[in-house]
Design goal:
Protein name: Peptidase M12B domain-containing protein
CATH superfamily: Collagenase (Catalytic Domain)
Oligomer: single chain
GO molecular function: metallopeptidase activity
Helix content: 25-40%
Strand content: 15-25%
Structural class: alpha/beta
Number of helices: 5
Order of helices and strands: EHHEHEEEHEEEH
Shape: globular
InterPro entries: MetalloPept_cat_dom_sf (IPR024079)
CATH architecture: 3-Layer(aba) Sandwich
Radius of gyration: 16 Å
Largest sheet: 5 strands, mixed
Number of strands: 8
CATH topology: Collagenase (Catalytic Domain)
Strand order of the largest sheet: 2-1-3-5-4
C-alpha cells in the first residue's frame, strides 16, 4: 500500500524551538490515528529555506486567495522536483501565526495543498483531515481517559477549556478511509 507523504514546508517565521517539537507535538498523534484507520505509513519530508515556499506570504483576509496561491506554489514546486500530486501526497505550509484574526489554517476538501498555523496543537491535524475529506459536520466532543471533555480533530471551534481527544470521530474515520481506499 502506498504510504502517505507529507511535504512539510516550515515557514521562515517558525521559531527554532517550535521546529524541534513539530514531530511529537503536532504530527505524531494524528498520523498514528490515520495509520490505524488506513493501515498506511507516513513519509515525512521536512523542507526549509526554499525561496517562494518557506517565505510564502500567507497573511490574508481572503482565505480562498491565499489557499489558491499556496496551491499554485506547491504545484510549481512539485513540477520542479518531479513529485506526485494525488491522494497520498500533502503539501503543508506550517506557519507560526494564523492567516488572519479568525483563521488558523485552511485546506480544500480532498486536495493536497494545506496551510496550518502552530497556534493550537490540533490545527495541522484538522487541516490535513479536511484534505482527506474529514468534515466539521462529523466532529464531536468526547471524553479523554481522565474524564475531561475533549475535542476530536475536526471540531470547528477550539477552546482552551477543552483538551484534544487525539482522534477523529468514527464518521470522519470512515470519510478518511473511503477517500484513501482507491489510492494506489
Amino acid at each position: 500500500m502506498q504510504p502517505i507523504t507529507l511535504y512539510i514546508f516550515i515557514h521562515n517565521d517558525v521559531p527554532h524551538r517550535a521546529i524541534n517539537t513539530l514531530g511529537r507535538a503536532y504530527f505524531k498523534e494524528f498520523t498514528d490515528e490515520i495509520t490505524a484507520i488506513t493501515k498506511r505509513s507516513f513519509i515525512f519530508k521536512d523542507i526549509r529555506n526554499v525561496q517562494g515556499m518557506t517565505d510564502f506570504n500567507y497573511k490574508s483576509q481572503s482565505i480562498d486567495d491565499v489557499l489558491h496561491r499556496w496551491e499554485l506554489a506547491a504545484i510549481r514546486y512539485k513540477n520542479q522536483h518531479g513529485l506526485k500530486w494525488g491522494k497520498t501526497e500533502r503539501y503543508i505550509l506550517v506557519t507560526h501565526s494564523p492567516l488572519n484574526e479568525t483563521t488558523l489554517g485552511c485546506a480544500y476538501p480532498g486536495q493536497p495543498a494545506v496551510i496550518a498555523s502552530l497556534k493550537h496543537y490540533q490545527v495541522i491535524a484538522h487541516e490535513v483531515g479536511h484534505s482527506f475529506n474529514a468534515s466539521h459536520n462529523n466532529a464531536a466532543l468526547g471524553h479523554n481517559p481522565w474524564g475531561s471533555v475533549c475535542e476530536t480533530f475536526m471540531f470547528p471551534n477550539a477552546s482552551t477549556f477543552r483538551s484534544n481527544c487525539y482522534r477523529f470521530t468514527p464518521e470522519n474515520r470512515d470519510n478518511i478511509r473511503a477517500f484513501l481506499s482507491d489510492a494506489l
